[in-house]
Design goal:
Layout: E1 9-11, E2 17-19, E3 27-33, H1 42-53, E4 58-64, H2 76-87, H3 106-114, E5 130-133, E6 139-143, H4 149-159
Parallel strand pairs: 3-4
Antiparallel strand pairs: 1-2, 3-5, 5-6
Length: about 160
Amino acid sequence: MTKNIYQFSCEDAKGNKVELNDYQGKTLLIVNTASKCGFTPQYEGLEELQKKYGSENFSVLAFPCNQFGGQEPGSNEEIVEFCTLNYSNTFPVFSKVDVNGNDAHPLFNFLTTEKKGLLGTEKIKWNFTKFLINKEGEPVARYGSSTTPEKIQADIEKIL
């Protein structure tokens, strides 16, 4: 079985299919996001990482999710507009997905199986769970919601 993310495709915020193998050779930080969450200000830190390392084959990939407290109620268009207006985000924001349960996106099923959370749980507990992906498309680390993007910087630098 393949142990990388390149087997998956997703939809961008406009509904266009995006093959994750388009990101081969890049270090990625995949994040489930929400616009009305206590952790929403992390968008600012995520954009700082994007600006700092974007020229070094790095990208944040944001996947909005409404499964936690209904904190991402907007349409894909509204989400992108919110991110652009409030945080000047330049990284890709994909279509809204489920990250847990029967309707979870296959990418998140893979990520949570490969990188378990606290006490071995696979389930994502809240918005802004982050997965660091190396240049081979392999998940190398998982971070909880309270881990700020700034705290991940050293780990990113190690695998760039």
